[in-house]
Amino acid sequence: MSNIVHLTDYQNKEVLIGDITIGQDDEGRYCLNDVHKASGEDQKHRPKYWLENGQTQALISEAEKGGIPPVSVMLGRHGGSYAVKELIYAYAMWISPEYHLKVIRAYDRLVTDGVAVHENAAQDVLDNPQKYIQTLKWQAQALVDENAYLKEQLRAVAPKVKLFDKFIDSTGVTTFQQFCTSLNLHQRKIKLWLRDIGWLRADQFEVNPLPTAKAVDHGYCVVKSVVTEYGHRKQQIKFTAKAEAYVELKAPDSVRKPIVESKEKMAA
């Protein structure tokens, strides 16, 4: 008997335990009768007895909060009891700790879409290589597509990163002028806005803006002591990368300078 176990979160994917195919209904619930068969079909472990258990009823009541009914009974020749994945695990645990652990470990080993290698996988790969190769090809293509998307995102943000890096100093902060240049901001308008949101002290924002305790405490600004060209020492506000990210996202258009295209581009 093969010990390859296939489990998946998605609906309508084939599930195998040993050499038993676990059926699913239209809403993706798994057949308890098939799981019972895969466990060895001990009569004392029939789904009927498990479903009548008080703890099972409590678990079903809790699972009903998740959306679709967790248990369904189908009549007819191909009927049976169907349950959501979480209840399948609980049923396996009720059958035996060993069986429960086997199912859980198989699920944890999912490395490809719908395939979990449990035991003796090497022989199954040799006997049925094509089913593994196709799945791996799908996974590889998904990774290629994801990498291409990430590269495109990096290209999109690269100009902003390069511009900000140009102005950032060795301590990781920028001066007010550099801050405004990197974000294309009107200096006077941004001062007023920063004062309104509580970053700049109202009594000093005009000539030599200094941050409030709030701005410093939240990591948006720092105060540096600098020496002027005349040898005088003064305090100067500097902005952190956190401040740059916040203002880029939150500042209104009214404080931003319009982007003017070059004459060459306009002529083109």
TrEMBL record:
Top-rank lineage group of the source organism: Bacteria
GO function term, MF aspect, one: DNA binding
Residues of the signal peptide: none
Coiled coil (residue ranges): none
Domain KilA-N: 9-110
PROSITE patterns in the record: KILA_N
Listed Pfam families: ANT, KilA-N
UniProt name for this protein: KilA-N domain-containing protein
